């Protein structure tokens, strides 16, 4: 029995009440490695100005599980502290903060995920699972079209509702969308409760939103950018992340506007090329294709010490699904009057459904957990340090 549990039972026995055992989550090997390197960093502090991780670290002398999860998600994996570190491998201290943080970060996606089994499955087989799910769903939709008639046909006026009626599409997508929002919400709530954030003020929320939307900590702390393949600085990662994120948001806005058109104004699709849903969707699709292609290139050329090799299939699975969604959406827009429309629509819908079904477990979740960690940091930095050292 662990000592605290024993004490809790003893205290309860003395007081005559039932034992209230406080659960203690043990550190994994990856957690212990983060705690080890942070103890060294806490003595060194050379990287204090690089990002929020280091000032947050100096508020702690010991690192419990919740602190480690919080700091791992606050790290943007810019690589700056690896390339600047005098104790990095091959030094015997072997300090590698970005790699240690990346290993814990991926662990948090699975630990806080709901349902946990899906988180663990995605962690092990991210790329295979993403592509197999997209292919399986697309094949299912292709078979559904074939059963209705020919797959190779052009519906009148590019009207894709002639292939899949509007209500059928809503019936297919609404449950997947609601599931994704619910699973992500439960995961983030668990994370938020675990890291004990304190009271959120308007100023803290504003600062966290600003830092998250600008990806402030991908500038390496000096504005010249992160490290990727070597110790040269590059702003590419920040720019490709921005293209991907804002491209995704534009596509989401296009779908939202089209939904309002349909239900509020009674204007059903298809819409012309100059309509707002199409303009938003095409701009978002192009940004997503460029952003995800760039991110994949950076992922393939990344310095092996900066990240966690085991995480690459998960990263690439998310990038592949985003790319497939955007590219098939653009092809659908360009070829909507052609005989390929039904096939392209099945591929596009399969990719979108697979993307939303896997959102809570992989790279998309990192953006949500990281924003939560940024919010905790914005709250924490406004509070007095609990260490009470000297002038603190
Ligand atoms: S990463 Fe290296 S240089 Fe930076 S604070 Fe830690 S020990 Fe010091
Ligand atoms: S990799 Fe970048 S973001 Fe992460 S701790 Fe190091 S300097 Fe900070």
Q: Which secondary structure elements does this structure contain, and how are they paired or packed?
A:
Layout: H1 3-15, H2 29-44, H3 53-57, H4 65-74, H5 80-83, H6 97-112, H7 116-148, H8 166-194, H9 202-214, E1 226-227, E2 233-234, H10 236-265, H11 276-301, H12 312-334, H13 341-358, H14 363-380
Antiparallel strand pairs: 1-2
Helix pairs in contact: 2-6, 4-6, 4-14, 6-7, 7-12, 7-13, 8-13, 8-14, 9-14, 10-11, 11-12, 12-13
This protein binds iron/sulfur cluster (2 copies).
Classify the beta-strand content into a percent band.
under 5%
Low-confidence stretches: 1-23
Mean of the pLDDT scores?
86
Rounded to an integer in angstroms, the radius of gyration calculated over CA atoms is: 24 Å
Secondary structure: helix percent: 55-70%
Q: How does this structure look, described?
A:
With 392 residues, the chain is an all-alpha fold. The chain is built from 14 helices and 2 strands. The relative contact order is 0.15. Residues 1-23 have low confidence and may be disordered. One iron/sulfur cluster binds next to α5 and α6.
